[in-house]
Amino acid sequence: MLKNIALAAIAAATLASPHIGHAAQIDREAIVRFGDLNLASSAGQAMLASRISAAANKVCYHFGTITLQQFMEQRTCRDELRDRAIDAVNGQMAFNDQPSMSAAASR
Questions:
Q1: How far is CA 16 from CA 9, 13, 32, 60, in A?
Q2: Confidence tier at 100 by pLDDT (50, 70, 90)
Q3: What would the pLDDT profile of 9-68 be if each residue is shown by its tens digit?
Q4: CA angle at residue 47 from 43 to 53, to 5 degrees?
Q5: How far apart are CA 45 and CA 106, in angstroms?
């Protein structure tokens, strides 16, 4: 079973979207490990969602002085990256005939 998510590869697809201009310069990556989590439990799902959100923040956000437009682009990057990572986990869980993460855990 998939035990890690490489967010850089997912970020590349997210950042290639034409509506995200400035954020396309991001060159960061993050690995989310979840082999230690029981994804059949709501606590395990919540922990994975938290790890994915933290990794998406690391990949998408540039800290310092930015414009409102840049902030919105970074937030869009984070949201799309988080959603794609959750979809990747759910796809792998479905492949292994396991229940998927709930929508509530991914927010």
A1: 11, 5, 21, 13
A2: low
A3: 454 444 444 444 444 455 678 888 888 988 888 999 899 999 999 988 888 887 788 889
A4: 145
A5: 8
**What is the spatial distance between Cα 75 and Cα 69, in angstroms, rounded to a whole number?**
10
Can you spell out the DSSP letters for the chain? ---EEEHHHHHHHHHTSTT--GGGG-----EEE-TTS-TTSHHHHHHHHHHHHHHHHHHH---SS--HHHHHHHHHHHHHHHHHHHHHHHHHHHHTT-PPPPTGGG-
How far is the C-alpha of 89 from the C-alpha of 100, rounded, in Å?
A: 8
